[in-house]
Amino acid sequence: MEMSEEKIILSIFKAIDEVNKMLPKDRQLKKLPGTFLAGDRGKLESLELINFIVELEGRLQKDFSLTFNLIEWLEIPEESMKRIDGLAKFIKAQAN
Amino acid sequence: MKKDLVRAILISDFNMEIFAGYLEHDSNSPKISPTIAPFGQVVQVMMDKSMDCWKQSQDVAIVWTRAESVINSFHKALEFDLVTIEQALEEVDVYSDCLLSLMDRVKIILVPAWTMPLNIAGYGMLERKSGLGLTDLLSRMNLRFAENLNSMKNVFILNSERWLQSAGEEAFKPKLWYMGKIAFGNPVFRQAVYEIKSALIGLMGGAKKIILVDLDNTLWGGVVGDEGWENLKLGGHNPIGEAFTDFQKSLKSLTRRGILLGIISKNEESVAMKAIDENSEMILKRVDFAGWRINWSDKAKNILELLEELRLGTQSAVFIDDNPVERARIRETLPEVLVPEWPNDPMFYKHSLISLNCFNTPFISSEDKGRTKLYKEESYRKKLKNKLGSLDDWLKKLDMRVVVDGINEANLQRVSQLFNKTNQMNLTTRRMTEKELLDWVKEKNRRIWTFRISDKFGDSGLTGLIAIESEKNEMKVTDFILSCRVMGRKIEEIMLYIVSEYARTLNLKKVTASYLMTKKNNPCYIFWKQSGFKHDKNTDIFTWNLEKKYPQPEGIKISSSSD
Asked: Which residues of chain B have a Cβ shorter than 8 Å from any chain A Cβ?
């Protein structure tokens, strides 16, 4: 499958669907490009974030047949990169 | 234990936060409020009642450990140290005693069985060798553990191996382990939640007690009323027939666990029961069914009646039907009845039945509470009966559409098929070849109209037809045919409405239909007798006087193919 940012975001949404199953309603992640996943404004706690990353890595493998290590994304300091659209950009850059 | 909220303490040597999240936020009943005991302190938590995690009373303890973490001999064995089986089993005995000390604090203990670590190769081909293989050792440990706890009525060892199998490669994720000490992947946790809830439902007396099955294309392949009991797809050297047989075998095996079977089917009872009695491929016999309602009435009404007869509540029942419209009807009218989605392909029927996992029987007999419960169920059913709502109202919600068309090249084959295969809703059972049909309809005073039915669940296709012939001041219905798939949804009335309106435009005086009885077309007779047409019992001729408009059923959109 061709790897556009839109398609990456769809994979991220699938991972969010899974993570939301283990979260209370008020903490569930919205499937919007501007939703913060990590950092101060992110709603996920550390174990949930790890789980999300592992879930997403699995989704990307299924959707694009590519292996990613998204742990590095956690270490990026820029706030904007901690959002869903930022993560999609990071994945796109890693794929190229 | 309250039914609306179960308090569960999670005791484990790995991180249970993700599992707890799934457990707490799963939308199915019962709701569970988990408390995570301090991570990695399994024995301390079990033995020390004064720990903070015990401040709140708990209903259930879920003790999920890895064997290598709590049985030191097994840990050593994983590193290929030589250990004796006896050593390992002694440790299992000690661990069992620790576990049993929980009995004074919780009502139920659920213990996922130990599983082989997924990142261990073991001894390869020697894995099952007694006294050496790790798999062999673990099997013995699990067996000893089960034996130690066997006499405890409140302790259950869950088959966690199955959770790992169903998760496949997702069962273990090294990254989850190294970064979070999470021992299993999400699919394992999801499956665990499903099975733990299923166990709790069973323990609380909520296991399903009866499976209500449809017949045509559910218990056997084909429509018995049309095809005859001899021609059903069942057994034999045929993959579909074999799939239906396997499904019946699975149902039969459930009866040996005490699950009742019932039939809810739209059919002629005598025809359906003949299939059950006479078809030698039938695995299920008349005696296997606790009761049945086989008629043309609303299935919701039939279910209530049958459950009443068997003195069971709606919450005890599972309803299996290949028809999505019937499933939706029951879901809406009897929400306590479990109506699983059902595959289109019979080869998946057995798998779907086994996956239901709602038949876990409780360890405590419910007989003691039976009488009170029975009264409650009686009263609930009475209330439900009043709430059931009319079938007409429900049919209106189906968003049904009927497209009327003449006979043409595109539908000729299907029309001929309906003529020659439909038995139940068939006025005269006149058989016609394609050529005969075309020749017959050539006459100016004759028409054949076809009816294509669709609703919010999908397109049932061309499923009805009516053939008419005008003569003097009369419109004769020569053929009135409808597939049993759509019978009882007011399509019959729509067909008569269309014919009568057409006859009125021709200034005719009456519409008549002459019923010709066969062995199979009693459903058609029943319909006509309640159609509103005047019935001459001596001749079996039905008449509608066109001075009066035939009532149009509400909520069904009619269009012609040219619209």
From this structure: 15, 17-18, 21-22, 24-26, 170, 173, 175-176, 179-180, 182, 185-186, 190
Q: Which domain holds residue A85?
A: 5-95
Q: Is the previous residue joined to A24 through a cis bond, with omega within 30 degrees of 0?
A: no
The whole-angstrom distance between B217's CA and the closest CA on chain A is 35
| Minimum distance, in Å, between the CA of residue A9 and any CA atom of chain B | 21
Please list every residue in chain A whose beta carbon sits closer than 8 Å to the beta carbon of residue B185: 54
- Could you write out the three-class secondary structure of B408-423? CCCCHHHHHHHHHHCC
What's the predicted TM-score (pTM) here? 0.70
Identify the DSSP state of B338.
B
Nearest by CB: A22 against B21, B170, B185: B21
B542: helix, strand or coil:
strand
Q: How confident is the model at residue B370 (pLDDT cuts 50, 70, 90)?
A: very low
- Count of Cβ atoms closer than 10 Å to residue A93 Cβ: 8
Instruction: ipTM value, please give it.
Output: 0.90
Helix axes B186-203, B160-167, angle to 10 degrees: 140
Q: Domain holding A11: CATH number? A: 1.10.1200
| Nearest chain B alpha carbon to A55 | B186
Task: Name the residue with tokens 């409780």.
Answer: B362
What pLDDT, in 10s, does the model give residues B120-154?
Answer: 878 888 888 888 899 999 999 999 999 999 888 88
Instruction: Round to whole Å and give the CA distance between B509 and A2.
Output: 69
Instruction: Give the separation between CA B5 and CA B39, rounded to whole angstroms.
Output: 24
Nearest to A8 by CA among A75, A78, A68: A68
Distance of CA A22 to the CA centre of its chain: 16
Total domain count, chain A = 1
- Token pair of B295 as six digits: 């008629």
CA Rg value for chain B: 31
| Nearest CA among B105, B12, B93 for reference residue B56 | B105
